[in-house]
Amino acid sequence: MREIIYADNAATSWPKPPEVVEAVGEFLRNCSGSPGRAAHKMALEASRIVFETREELAALISAPSSEQIVFTKCATEALNLALFGLLRPGDRVVATTMEHNAVARPLYYLERHRGIAVTYVRCREDGSLDLDRLRQTLIEVSPRLLVVNHASNVTGTIVPLAEVAEMKGPALLLVDAAQSAGALEIDVSQGLDLVALTGHKSLLGPTGTGALYIAPGLEELIEPLGLGGTGSRSESLEQPSFLPDRFESGTPNTVGLAGLKAGLNFIKKTGLARIREHEKGLTALFLEGLASIPGITVYGPGDPERQTSVVSLNIAGKDPAWVALELDRRYGIAVRPGLQCAPLAHQTIGTYPRGTVRFSWGYFSGPSDVEMTLVALKELARE
């Protein structure tokens, strides 16, 4: 297999730390027990892995207790749990026009089939949230729920969560942190009520892992998406009401959580600040190089301080799908073209329906990857 320049970390991070690969293999080789379902050594070891992963994730986001962390298979499932579990007919929701379809599609469905009302706050053309416009909308609509995307998967634009939380009033705040968990600091004590996370992007774990943080007391307001065996209160036909069991029916993806735990440990050992500085440096290098290539339009803030390592662009006269195909075919550069499952965001930044070519660097990307990518883009732009 030829060497790959991987610039698609916003889809899923690669490569994974060696510790993650080893943890998955170790679990499958020696510890494939079912957590919470027996008292033999393999089952107990599996339970320990689930518990310790929950503890590490809670610590990363400053959750008051690991019981507030509900494991899901991805951020999309976590968002669906929050939206379908919480919202009732007549509820009002405020969201932004930079939301991923993991938020927009459930809201669209709930608006039509459950009678909720959705108001979208239009973001600026660089993807940034107009806080004055948000404040006015919250006053006018008085929603039960406010949903924001912490970091855009299209432009990387970062929303200032602390400022948003200060103005939310009585509304509950749901944060889509699919792109930010593991890349940016998240502190739920700032007034975040619900936070949806995925394990396979910047948390460096395997696919099939995710979580929903639920602030203390809110679990009583949220209906489970599914019911079944939890390994607890097995004598009763009633679903357990306590966290996390209320929302975790069925055997969990323990092998995936073993890998996620290793990813979380890697982040803790490396330091989130160090990871952020590395990715900011790569983003700055990329943006500086792009500015010197004629025919390239960059979307988003264009400022590493105000965005993650996600950068979207287009080459004049070139279809994004063609650019992505040629980057892969000629240069071995992996990127994501199109709408990136976020049509509202592309309508906001003016790239709908064609989309963009999205680059997303990670901790294991290096300056040479960026420099070789700039050479490739320069050659394609000349054609």
TrEMBL record:
Keywords: Aminotransferase, Pyridoxal phosphate, Transferase. GO terms for biological process: cysteine metabolic process. Its EC number is 2.8.1.7. CDD domains: SufS_like. It catalyses: (sulfur carrier)-H + L-cysteine = (sulfur carrier)-SH + L-alanine. Signal peptide: none annotated. Its cofactor is pyridoxal 5'-phosphate. SUPFAM superfamilies: PLP-dependent transferases. The keyword 4Fe-4S does not apply. The keyword S-adenosyl-L-methionine does not apply. This is cysteine desulfurase. It comes from Thermosulfuriphilus ammonigenes.
